[in-house]
Design a protein that fits this description.
2 copies of one chain form a homodimer. Chain A is built from 11 helices and 10 strands. Chain A is an alpha/beta fold. In chain A, strands 1-2-3-4-5-6-7-10 form an 8-stranded parallel beta barrel, surrounded by 8 helices. In chain A, strands 8-9 form a two-stranded antiparallel ribbon. Chain A is globular and about 45 Å long. Chains A and B meet through loops of A and loops of B.
């Protein structure tokens, strides 16, 4: 499938080797990797597996969590891993409020400082840091970076190839989406594009309310169109956190997302 | 208590008469009313109850839901009720995506048209429409108005006394909060200020994750300070949706919120 990438969070129960084999079988030529599965396989073996399968590593997930302890060293390791895997994009989920703190401006300053410190190291290793704004419902516990505009401000301040990840689940509601996507595209700062849908009602674990493209409230084709108009011609990574999908056999999930890509997102399918 | 108002959603199980009596007993002199409890008591009797108790009606909740059928007539009735109750502010929760639709720009246009149509009617009846931006996690099902900046754009376009409601739960995460509060204050558009806190983890019903000021992730005193700096000198309404608080005897809830107001929000308590 045309520039379709499987983010392996979508097939949570697959090992890295299973995900690689699944992609080859399904004709999906891009893969977004998670560090825990890479570590489990071993970094060298993981790199060899994806290389020998002819897959493009469209992102490594994830670095960031700048508001927690030990993030600087861990983020440099994440850069090293991305370089070893041939992933040119490292996704950064920036971290929420530090334990016991309510000081949001201070947390945001800490994130800015952490990104600025990481960016030159990443550039020196041929890796582009990609700041992912997370939906504002994750501001307290996962990411104090809540809008695309804010992520772009941070990326521009950090420089050294730093850009952003656009994930439909996190940005679809933003009244400034059109403006900020155009800004991001014009500056060449869209490093990755991830898709999934918004399901109602929100599940008990708010992390898991994501669905296949077409099953929820988001006009994903419209956002994909805006991203394309902004000049992004890269991969579309499908990243879905959803217990039911995780409980579905991986091969079936890949058939579904390939089908949805063909119907909603491939060239010619867009309205 | 100094400019403290009980929004009766906080004491969900109280009738209007019980809420009025509870406020008098607790020394709370403002009350924010919900239309269902007003209807249950009867409009004339409700108006008499609050007037005879010497309470100020700080808001009527709520009109809006412009994206659903029949909203125009219902919103005019809400204005009439606000006028009868002596409430000068009618809170507008603007509605989510129409059933089966993913067209967010169209829904937002419909909201703008609905507010513009309502505003002159409200002005003629001495009622100020107050647009409430809701947290983006409610964009699909409750309010396509997701940020303070967006609400202010709508209020300015509608005119005729239209303004906004600032609720800490809905706006605390916004990177533009300082800028937009200053803008709102300078234009005299803050018609109501509501407070509660953000509790983690989000509960199974995402509507109910609100807590007493001081129990969660929001620096409510800081936001109250920004609102005051912006020139707002009105009431602080406590509006909490939380099953545990609803299950607590109302008098105890009023003691808690009075105590929190004194410690965190009353003049001199602010950092």
């Amino acid at each position: 499938m045309e520039l379709l990438s499987l983010n392996t969070a979508t097939t949570k129960h697959w090992t890295l080797a299973e995900a690689v084999a699944g992609c080859v079988e399904a004709g999906i030529s891009g893969i977004g990797l998670w560090r825990d599965r890479v570590a489990e396989a071993g970094l060298d073996r993981a790199a060899r597996l994806v290389r020998e399968a002819g897959l493009t590593v469209t992102s490594l997930c994830r670095g960031g969590f700048f508001t927690g302890p030990g993030s600087d060293a861990d983020n440099r390791r994440a850069v090293d891993e991305a370089a070893a895997l041939g992933a040119d994009t490292l996704v950064l989920v920036c971290g929420g409020l530090p334990e016991g703190s309510r000081d949001l401006p201070a947390a945001r300053r800490r994130v800015a400082a952490g990104i600025a410190a990481l960016a030159p190291y990443a550039e020196a290793h041929g890796v582009k840091p990609a700041i992912e704004p997370l939906h504002p419902m994750f501001c307290a516990d996962r990411a104090v970076v809540s809008t695309l505009g804010q992520a772009l401000d941070l990326a521009e301040a950090a420089g050294h190839g730093t850009g952003v990840v656009v994930d439909t689940y996190h940005v679809w509601w933003d009244p400034e989406l059109e403006t900020q996507l155009a800004r991001a595209g014009a500056a060449g700062l869209i490093h990755a594009f991830q898709v999934c849908d918004w399901l109602l009602p929100l599940p008990a674990d708010a992390l898991l309310g994501r669905g296949h493209v077409g099953d929820g409230s988001i006009d994903v084709p419209r956002i994909a169109g805006l991203v394309a108009e902004a000049g992004y011609g890269g991969w579309t990574e499908v990243e879905i956190f959803n217990q039911e999908i995780w409980d579905t056999p991986g091969a079936e999930t890949l058939r579904t997302l390939t089908d949805r890509h063909r119907r909603h997102l491939a060239r010619g399918a867009r309205r």
